[in-house]
Design goal:
alpha+beta
Length: 196
């Protein structure tokens, strides 16, 4: 169990091929309208907020802002908001009821903004940045994810970053694929340019 996650206020990563990525804590009143556009877009169906109002998104992020074990980051690419990252303590989430969280476990969710002009390699750059946030910014020993079993795109992205699926778990709103990535898994992954 993590006593309290120590969250950096900002984080920066220079991706070798894509350039500048940054993360800052979400400011709910400022960011809620843009986040509302993202989470209600058809592409974001696995976030299960398709019918949410701006007020719902604001309330959700105000709740996260008040938490000592759940954090939301606005992801920036070339200084423009382009993705959302949530970081949480699995021991203080519903995952605590389906597996035994170890010290140093840190959970995350990631959502990229809808775009009419996809950038080649962008989602992989986002994932590499997020993993660095977890291991360098939060000091994680192991990253934990539980994406919907039907979300094939995120399964491929998780595999790219070094995640290893363990098993399917029943959560409140979905069947999730519980997966883990240690620091060593990440360092040996395609995200780090290592092909095994």
């Amino acid at each position: 169990m993590n006593a309290t996650l120590k969250a950096p206020g900002t984080f920066y990563h220079l991706h070798e091929g894509l350039g500048d990525f940054g993360l800052r804590l979400v400011d709910p009143p400022t960011d809620a309208p843009l986040l509302h556009e993202w989470v209600t877009h058809p592409k974001a169906k696995y976030w299960m907020m398709q019918d949410a109002s701006v007020a719902d998104v604001l309330a959700e992020h105000e709740g996260i802002e008040m938490s000592a074990h759940h954090f939301a980051y606005m992801g920036l690419y070339h200084y423009r908001a382009r993705f959302l990252v949530e970081v949480y303590d699995p021991a203080r989430s519903e995952l605590a009821g389906v597996y035994d969280p170890a010290p140093g476990d840190v959970g995350m969710h990631v959502l990229t903004a809808p775009s009419d002009r996809p950038i080649p390699g962008f989602t992989k750059g986002v994932m590499t940045t997020v993993m660095r946030l977890l291991f360098e910014g939060f000091g994680a020993q192991r990253a934990v994810v539980e994406p919907d079993v039907g979300n094939e795109a995120i399964h491929r992205l998780n595999e790219f970053a070094g995640f290893r699926p363990e098993r399917t778990v029943d959560l409140k709103d979905k069947r999730g694929l519980l997966s883990f990535c240690t620091r060593i898994d990440f360092e040996r992954s395609a995200a780090r340019g290592v092909h095994t």
